[in-house]
TrEMBL record, chain A:
The chain crosses the membrane at residues 24-42. Residues 244-407 form the VWFA domain. It comes from the Bacteria. It comes from Gracilibacillus halotolerans. The keyword Membrane applies. This is Uncharacterized protein (DUF58 family). Keywords: Membrane, Transmembrane, Transmembrane helix. Coiled coil: none annotated.
TrEMBL record, chain B:
The chain crosses the membrane at residues 7-26, 239-258. This is DUF4350 domain-containing protein. Residues 39-204 form the DUF4350 domain. Keywords: Membrane, Transmembrane, Transmembrane helix. It comes from the Bacteria.
């Protein structure tokens, strides 16, 4: 039975086998042309049959001039972590134990989202050879490629052999950290377009950070006279908000977070923004905890401090996936309250439209607000806006348009109601999510809202 | 000793059993003969008459075309010949007749053969099934016969009609060509083993065939033998056609092999897993269209328009359309504001809106929305 299944596998065009090459097709085409011309002078069935069988039979000898299947060994080297949308090289080391050189091409057992570009003709001499190909993964997660598909042919190259080598490995694709890196390099320039200074001074608040040159507009009461006298320049004390606040990040992994955006889906963007926010908070010396939820709690990372904690967060949330179920907000809020007993800033990344549809989530949020500072943030639904503006050419399009307009109005109404209750709800463009969330966080920090 | 794997043994056993059963149940089937075959003893064959002719008139069977242009005083019989695929064959027979010989052709539909014309006879189209016995006339004498053919010969003025049916249509004719003559009959069925002795078929054959004439009787098996008469399929066309067909087939096979062999993993299509955020809107709007909620939809669009005008120009929501539109008049291309606001107010008062009105209003409101939002 096993043998039969293996045969079936091969018949179904999988796994091992031999394949004619393009060169062979051209050769046969040439032969056909020759036979065609000869047939005007002389035609015989025996000649036709013999010519076809002889040519195909002779070309099969080409198979003996490439390595045997057992003479090849393979090894794959992958970086520990691949970043989303970053091009990385994967190295395949091939060992050829025969005496024949061969041309190799490979395919790896990776999903299409890796956008791999393989070399088409790699000459493998007897001995070892390294073959590199680049990947640019576009979907985050944990992958388990367990095969390497190889095709190779001799230097003559009439027939190709195909083998499939089992080679299991784990590949991690982590969120794109370029935003985080940019933030950590220069927080000020990262937030440039938002027009908020990372540390806006408010006299008498915060703690001493450093001394810098006095510039026009600084509070004259803050001038450090001792240093000014020493350096013969007017210096001023620079304060910044207190450290050691608590930030809780809630990530919704429910059904609606799977909606497609320009690059990746909502959850991809959200996770990248959450990591940048966590980096920002940790850089400020705050404690960050993370909760991911859908129908159940998917993952919890307790509060931690220092940039090292960012690694823990990254490892915890890099393989979060969109769940098929609706999100259970009530449970998520209760869970967050349980793990975070001190007053903290709770930032919920979610689909703000569906959140406003549920009235009982509003009740829980009001409860939560008594102890914590709540910020709800989500990605603006660009499709909704496009639907609102679409031309009503058909009855369905007109109806879609009015439905979208109704939803938009309802959402705005709810937003107003909620903000009157002190629950801030922001929606931002997909590439501005991290920036706007961080500026809200810093604003809250500057105003001393997180007790 | 190595144990034999039962998985191998079982199919082998099965094959042996099948072979044995086939051997013991094999029965020789009746030999198949084509109709009108000269060596066929079956009811459809003509062995009886052929043997009679051979024994009594020293007829011989000839497998070759008649030799050209000699008056051999031959009487050649063609029983149900195939249509001649080559002109040379027909010309050879014509030469044969012209040089003073006789050719007897028995064929159900002899149309186009030696310029004989035949037509479909609707009179025989009576009952489907067994042909019935009718009366035919030869030299005005009645004979009983079963007519099998649905065709009748259209004689030309010079032809002598040998046999005709009740309505006077020709069943057999004689035509003089050159020094010889051609005899054609549409009833080869009369001389089959089964029917030769029934009715007056034998007498009719005597009327048709010149049995009393002197001459050398020849039974032409070249034209009668159906298998050798048709050209085998591997000789019909020129060599280059076969080259194209065969090399093309092999080339196609190689090409499909080259293209079709899977290399690499099976990918899941991205379309299968991608979701869009407007699924809800689409579903709700389909439901609204099915329910014909056009008035409600127009109300929503008006609400939205009110809201954006409020957001941009600060016109409160409770103001009338007259005030609202006057406020934004300079941004609108429609200049007749009174008329428009009157129509909108009327629309608001209506209980129901039909499909066409809904679509038209949606377009107008969208134009206003665009103009408002562009400012």
């Amino acid at each position: 039975m096993k043998r039969f299944r293996r045969l079936l596998d091969r018949l179904l065009f999988r796994d091992r086998g031999i394949i004619p090459t393009k060169k062979l097709l051209y050769l046969f085409l040439a032969l056909s042309g020759a036979l065609f011309l000869i047939s005007f002078l002389f035609f015989s069935w025996i000649l036709l049959g013999l010519a076809i069988v002889a040519v195909l039979g002779l070309t099969l000898f080409d198979l003996f001039y490439s390595p045997n299947r057992k003479d090849l060994e393979v090894h794959r080297d992958v970086p520990d972590e691949l970043e989303r949308f970053e091009t990385e090289l994967i190295t395949i080391t091939l060992e050829n134990k025969s005496i024949f050189p061969c041309y190799v091409r490979i395919e790896d057992d990776l999903p299409q989202s890796f956008q791999a570009s393989y070399p088409t003709r790699f000459l493998l001499q007897p001995g070892k050879g390294e073959l590199e190909y680049s990947v640019k993964p576009s979907v985050r997660g944990k992958y388990h490629p367990n095969k390497i598909y190889i095709r190779y042919h001799s230097q003559l190259g009439l027939w190709e052999k195909q083998i499939t080598m089992p080679y299991e490995q784990e590949i991690k694709v982590i969120p794109n950290l370029s935003e985080t890196k940019r933030y950590l390099e220069s927080a000020q320039s990262f937030l440039l377009h938002e027009g908020i200074k990372t540390r806006r001074l408010k006299s008498g608040q915060g703690e001493f950070a450093n001394i810098r040159n006095y510039v026009v507009g600084d509070d004259p009461r803050k001038i450090n006279w001792r240093q000014s006298a020493k350096l013969q320049e007017v210096m001023t004390n620079n304060d910044e908000p207190e450290h050691g606040k608590y930030v809780t990040i809630l990530i919704d992994c429910g059904r609606l977070m799977g909606a497609e955006l320009k690059s990746g889906n909502r959850l991809e963007r959200t996770i990248e923004a959450a990591i940048t926010l966590a980096a920002c908070a940790l850089d400020n010396g705050d404690h960050v905890s993370v909760v991911a939820f859908a129908k159940d709690i998917e993952m919890t990372i307790p509060a931690g401090k220092g940039l090292d904690h960012l690694n823990t967060i990254l490892r915890g949330i890099y393989d979060l996936e969109v769940q098929a179920s609706e999100s259970n907000y009530a449970m998520a809020f209760q869970h967050a309250q349980r793990i975070q007993t001190r007053r903290s800033m709770m930032i919920l990344f979610t689909d703000v439209y569906s959140l406003t549809h549920e009235s009982h989530s509003f009740y829980f949020l009001k409860q939560l607000r008594r102890k914590h500072l709540v910020l709800l943030t989500g990605i603006e639904d660009e499709l909704l806006h496009r639907t609102i503006e679409q031309e009503p050419t058909t009855i369905y399009r007109a109806m879609q348009k009015s439905t979208a307009q109704e939803q938009y109005l309802a959402f705005n109404r709810m937003k107003l109601v909620w903000s009157r209750q002190g629950i801030t709800l922001i929606e931002s463009k997909e590439d501005k999510l991290a920036v706007s969330t961080i500026s809200h966080y810093i604003d809250a920090l500057n105003r001393g809202l997180i007790g | 000793m190595r144990r034999i794997n039962p998985a191998v043994l079982y199919p082998l056993f099965l094959v042996i059993v099948l072979v044995l059963v086939t051997i013991f149940t094999y029965k020789e089937e009746a030999k198949q003969y084509p109709p009108f075959a000269m060596d066929s003893p079956s009811p459809t064959g003509t062995k009886a008459i052929v043997t009679y002719l051979q024994e009594n008139l020293d007829a011989k069977i000839d497998e070759e075309l008649p030799s050209e242009g000699n008056n051999l005083n031959q009487i050649r019989v063609l029983i149900d010949p195939a249509l001649f695929s080559k002109i040379e064959v027909e010309e050879a027979y014509l030469d044969f007749i012209e040089s003073g010989n006789t050719l007897v052709v028995l064929k159900e539909n002899p149309d186009e053969l030696f310029d004989i014309q035949s037509e479909y006879s609707f009179q025989t189209l009576t009952v489907v099934g067994e042909a019935e016995e009718t009366t035919v006339f030869a030299d005005n004498e009645p004979f009983q016969a079963t007519i099998f053919s649905n065709f009748r010969i259209t004689p030309s003025p010079d032809d002598t009609v040998l046999v005709e049916d009740e309505s006077g249509d020709a069943i057999a004719i004689e035509r003089n060509i050159g020094d010889g003559k051609l005899i054609v009959s549409t009833e080869p069925g009369w001389i089959t083993n089964h029917f030769i002795l029934s009715s007056n078929h034998l007498e009719l054959f005597q009327e048709i065939a010149p049995l009393d004439e002197d001459g050398e009787w020849v039974l032409d098996s070249l034209s009668a033998d159906h298998v050798s008469a048709s050209i085998p399929i591997y000789e019909v066309y020129h060599g280059w056609v076969y080259i194209i067909i065969f090399c093309g087939a092999v080339l196609t096979l190689l090409f499909l092999w080259y293209q079709g062999k899977r290399f690499g993993p099976v990918h899941v299509r991205r379309e299968d897993i991608v979701r869009y955020s407007n699924e809800r809107i689409k579903a709700i709007s389909i439901w609204h269209v099915k329910g014909k909620h056009y008035k409600e939809a127009i109300d929503k669009q008006l609400d939205y328009l009110k809201e954006i005008i409020r957001a941009r120009f600060g016109v409160p929501l409770h103001h009338s359309w007259q005030d609202r539109l006057q406020h934004i008049q300079k941004f609108l291309t429609i200049k007749n504001i009174d008329e428009l606001s009157h129509q909108i107010s009327e629309l608001e008062q209506k209980d129901a809106v039909n499909k066409q009105e809904f679509l038209a209003w949606s377009k107008w409101l969208d134009e206003i929305r665009e103009e408002v939002e562009q400012k």
